[in-house]
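Table S2 (continued). Query chain:
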Amino acid sequence: MTVTKNRLLLMLLAVLALALLVGCGSDDSSDDGGASDDATVAASDCTPESLDTYKDGVLTVGTDSPAYPPYFEDDDPTNGRGFESAVAYAIAGELGFADSEVEWAKIPFNASYAPGPKKFDFDVNQISITPAREKAVTFSTPYYTANQAVLVAKGSDLEDVTDLDQLKDVQIGVQIGTTSLEAVNDEIKPTTEPKVFDNSNDVVTALKQGQVDAVVLDLPTAIYLRDAELPGSKVVGQFEDEDGDQWGALMSKDSSLAACVNKAIESLDESGRLEEITDQWMSDSASAPKLD
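Corresponding output:
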């Protein structure tokens, strides 16, 4: 009789222990789910003292050299002038770093998104966010979406265009495989079918030879062609393209800084500061006004 009672007592204790174990396991699971949500990152987690940066107390930003306008001015990222220089310092400010606590590292473009450890905290260098690159690195929330731009040759009658309606009756050239053709048809709605070319060289040649009155391509490419390949040409304006290339601050894969950098960019966007920087350097200083 005593043995039976002892067995019964042991069974009851085992059931009680199992119930307690299940209950504790349920609570732990719930806590872990909340803690892993990046959206809940606290401001106290995004300070120079809390961030695991490449150098203690310093934010290291990478970009290539030479660094060209309008992204950087005078080939000097440290001066805060130029679109991406200004964006980098604005992100740093949101994270609590003074300008004097920001250091720049020379990082070749292709090396920035190569697999492996990084000698910077984030890199800004007109780097488009793509699935292939995301396999090796982590990108921030986009800080820029490339608009479409209208480029005309030197001396063109279209140099004073101020709105898209003025482009309806002109012969426009675009490169195949880009979003430009769709953007032209959706936003400009030309009366003449755009001419489509196989590559950017053919587009440039067509503009030089007068085969087209204007070409439409993404704004960064238009700025490059104007400044490097087509002396005297003019970017008469830009217009929005929801499908444009998005640029992000590039970090090492699964960087612990990602949530805080995202939070900084989102704050700049919500405050209107990011738009101010974009308008200043990608519209005014780039001589690429917005076309309605």
